[in-house]
Amino acid sequence: MGLSDEWPLGWEDDAYPRTGMVTGSPADGGFIDRTGQSWRMRVLDTALLVGVAIFLGAWVSIDEMLLRRLVMNVGVGIVFLGWVWQSLTTRCPHCRYRVMFHAYEKYSSLDWLLRARAMRSCPKCGYDPD
Ligand SMILES: [Zn+2]
Fold first, then answer.
1. 99 alpha carbon – ligand 1 mean position (Å)
2. If you measure from the C-alpha of residue 19 to the centroid of ligand 1, how many angstroms do you get, rounded to a whole number?
3. What's the pTM?
4. Quick check: 15 pLDDT over 60?
5. How many Å lie between the centroid of ligand 1 and the Cα of residue 33?
6. Where are the domains of the chain?
7. How would residue 28 be classed by pLDDT, with cut points 50, 70 and 90?
8. Strands in 76-115 per DSSP E
9. Could you read off the pLDDT of 100-114 as tens digits, one per residue?
10. DSSP assignment, residue 8?
């Protein structure tokens, strides 16, 4: 049940170079990935991880109240700035529409991130990078 079972016949031949397999993988199919902006998503992921880690770290390990609140707010600030930056800079290369705004408007707070990642084309002008 490996990849070779599903892959079209002849994938080992020179007609199907390995680089072609990688770029054609269904794993990276979203509009944001295909317009070369997935690194912005990774910046957001990193900001979330770092911010939450600082927040929780301060909560459990700092006894002094003022310092604890200060550091916790730094954690929240990192998450907030990462999120705002990612929302403002992830754009359609064709019409410059901020595609994340579409996700916030249309989808629930539970799945806007997944929906934004799965977007196939620009919701405003219909631009498809393929
Ligand atoms: Zn567009």
1. 8
2. 29
3. 0.73
4. no
5. 15
6. 29-118
7. low
8. none
9. 999 999 988 888 888
10. P
